[in-house]
């Protein structure tokens, strides 16, 4: 279906905090005394006026009062933003025969039961809009005060954004249908306590920014279509971006004949890189000046020589053999993987010796790429798989192939997670089996065999990954999976 613009003529005025909660995903319904046609789309204008002129204390539950007051202040000065639009999915009249629904509506929302009962008694009916809310990519800007009332009409001074079907729904399709059905069938929404936890996280973000990931995860669990969490740069990992730079610096200083410190700095960052990848450095085998640069004892023996400067000189391999054999003994050295790392190009003699003595050579930038991938997707570098690529000679091209292979595997898993999410939203079912999902994926020209798909689903539903949830069946075809959180590949 092509994406089309929405022709929205006006908006409705709702209490500012109600609008905030609709735009967050906390609410999918709101009291509104005027009649609206189902299917009609409109802007959500944050008003200072509360329904039936109730006070904040009368209208909202105590745990929401502080936030409600802050929201009123936020929208008290112009210009103000309209951040969402909505379509009316159901115009719901709760009459006298249905008054028993009020306690459960209050229990599932942010309003006091007494407030809903007061509105009902005033009109002998409670009119409620069940809304499908969409987040605007570019908010509308209202520059002048609006007359208090039920509706909002834009003025020439306002900057009005075009709404579109491509705008992100605040709540996923499956979650919206579930919540709507619970309301209409006199049932309480089961995740109110989890929503309260999310609300506390949201309120605490300014003081505790480290709550961001938890807040994002809860939103995804609740089915709120949250934007992908922004990846914050970790200052503790800033050194990764300097691996190749330190190698280049050693070339620059080598040309100036003052490269000793640059060589030491490069050796130190290579050591840090190998440890970060998961190797265990055996410091008892490190020599002094002119000694063995690095020996990794786990998960397999690895002897490493760091060569700063613009050229990996002749006799580098011979030096590695001599020092390695002297520190480790002949048998232990022969059984070890052997690696030379440097920013420069190996001489022809070095390449020949590397082939003969089965020594691998990689550039500093290749090492940096490996470390960057491991930092982005922790555990993505399998050291035993990496060992297979440690062939004699210069292996940068081979390692680039290995990095691309891992990236494709991650991309595949990201797609499968999205397919589980889309299947749930399109069918309205919370869980899917392998056969159903395989048929859904095949319709998207995405090739994978059922057994392979199941193995990946098991991996993604592991407690250590937590991208999907799993309900174990009697056999693998009866396992059921459901979406928990996205895997960002940006």
Write the layout of secondary structure elements.
Layout: E1 5-6, E2 11-15, H1 16-24, E3 29-31, E4 41-47, H2 56-59, H3 65-74, E5 80-94, H4 102-107, H5 113-123, E6 126-142, E7 151-152, E8 163-164, E9 168-169, H6 173-184, H7 192-204, H8 212-222, H9 243-255, H10 260-277, E10 280-281, E11 294-298, E12 302-306, E13 311-312, H11 316-328, H12 330-334, E14 337-342, E15 345-346, H13 348-357, E16 360-363, H14 364-376, H15 383-387, E17 393-394, H16 396-427, H17 434-442, H18 450-460, E18 468-471, E19 480-483
Parallel strand pairs: 2-4, 12-14, 13-15, 14-16, 16-17
Antiparallel strand pairs: 1-8, 2-7, 3-6, 4-5, 5-6, 6-9, 10-11, 11-12, 18-19
Helix pairs in contact: 7-8, 9-10, 10-14, 11-13, 14-16
The gross shape turns out to be: elongated
Low-confidence stretches: none
Describe the main β-sheet briefly.
Answer: 7 strands, mixed
Oligomer: single chain
Helix content range: 40-55%
Q: Rounded to an integer, what's the Rg over CA atoms? A: 31 Å
Mean pLDDT: 86
Structural class of the helices, strands and pairings?
A: alpha/beta
What percentage of the residues does DSSP assign to strands (E)?
Answer: 15-25%
Total helical segments:
18
Q: How far apart lie the N and C ends?
A: 26 Å
Number of strands: 19
